[in-house]
Amino acid sequence: MPNVFDTACTVTVTYEQKNVTFELRNSAFVSQIETIENKYSIQARQNRIVFYGASNFALWTNMENDLGEYKVQNHGFGGSTDEYLVKHAPRILYPYNPKILFFQTGSNDYVNLSGTDEEKVAKCMAYKDMMFKRFHAQLPNTEFVVMSGLLLPGRKQYANMTMQINEKLKAYCEQNTFMHFVDATQMTYNSDTKQYNYNLFVSDEIHLNENGQRLWAERFIKPAIESIIENKQWSDLRK
Fold first, then answer.
1. Strand, coil or helix: what is 13?
2. Distances (CA, A) of 58 to 4, 104, 116, 158
3. pTM
4. pLDDT along the chain (239 residues), means of 10
5. CA–centroid distance for 167 within its chain
6. CA angle, 150 then 209 then 112, to 5°
7. 179: which of 4, 31, 173, 200 fits an S-S bond (Cβ 3.0–4.6 Å)?
8. C-alpha span between 117 and 112 (Å, rounded)
């Protein structure tokens, strides 16, 4: 596949027998990318657990303590979308050859999209389809863990779309043996009471606070890591 992500252009892909067109923009987040490169030595940080996504990863400054049992590293950069995950992968993903790769972007991927909700969901999933296939081609031995988009009190207007995309992501992961979907929607939103758990967020009601990060780790992320370690016999990922 040609590297269409290197310049601003328009690309059409097919997803669920529909052609979807979207624009790819030029690169951004250069300073954050350089910070990640400087923090993690490629030579010393091979074959570990990499977290790759947007601000709820990037702002998790205590990740390596909260997941202290494991060899983890945080490659999240705030405000990123799937587009930028692809763009910067040659610098801060592929060279590290992770054994386990966690993804999370959530509503960043569709807050600025135009069209109906159905069109936005199709466009978002078309991009994810391209991204996952591209990453798997580069990292064929890596296990992918896709975290569900969190339901955010600060972005209530996108809750239905987030749930639609989560359902499609779950089905997508079930079709690929190297992919695992982790549904954490109940952590931030109680579907029975229709109430958000505001206590897990900082004041913007979009980003998790330390309590939210620790709960995310204990209830959802650690079990996913342990399941893969046991299944693949990758005990070297534990410290």
1. strand
2. 26, 10, 30, 21
3. 0.89
4. 45 54 59 95 97 95 97 94 91 98 87 86 92 97 97 94 95 98 96 95 96 98 98 98
5. 15
6. 40
7. 173
8. 12
